[in-house]
Specification:
Layout lengths: L1 H21 L24 E5 L4 E4 L2 H9 L1 H4 L8 E7 L6 E3 L4 E4 L4 E2 L2 E2 L2 E3 L2 H10 L4 E4 L6 H8 L4
Antiparallel strand pairs: 1-2, 1-3, 3-4, 5-8, 5-9, 6-7
Length: 160
Amino acid sequence: MKRRALLGLGLALCASLAFAQAVPKPGAKDLCPVCGMLVSKYTNWVAVVTWKDGHAHFFDGAKDMFKFLHDLPKYAPNHRKEDIAGIFVTDFYNLERIDARKALFVIGSDVLGPMGHELVPLASKVDADDFLKDHKGKRIIAFDRVTANIPVALDSGKFD
């Protein structure tokens, strides 16, 4: 029985290490393809789209990442959604990269990102509920519910 527990613990540790190594970090000169900002200056907000060919695009926040994903022909004309290997955001509370497709995003809070109002990524429903309450957020949105108009509304300040 102890062997199984140790084996399970070992496999879980290996899986988490493999995940951590799979998410690249922005270099000192990596620019957000949407706004042109230096991404490495905003480590608490970094979002990443990785591609099957091994390269990555870095963003200074989830808002610009969603703009990018909703308009690949404009921001990355030689890329297709089918070629995306992973999408990651930085969890607001623990500052770790998490799978954006599993994250929850709070909009309309009193917390501003590098580009103003932001989709604030959180890893769990409990964290999202707490953040919404503590930071006067308007609502919680799952990844697949972030439409192209939400980042635009955040830029204009009209995000009811």
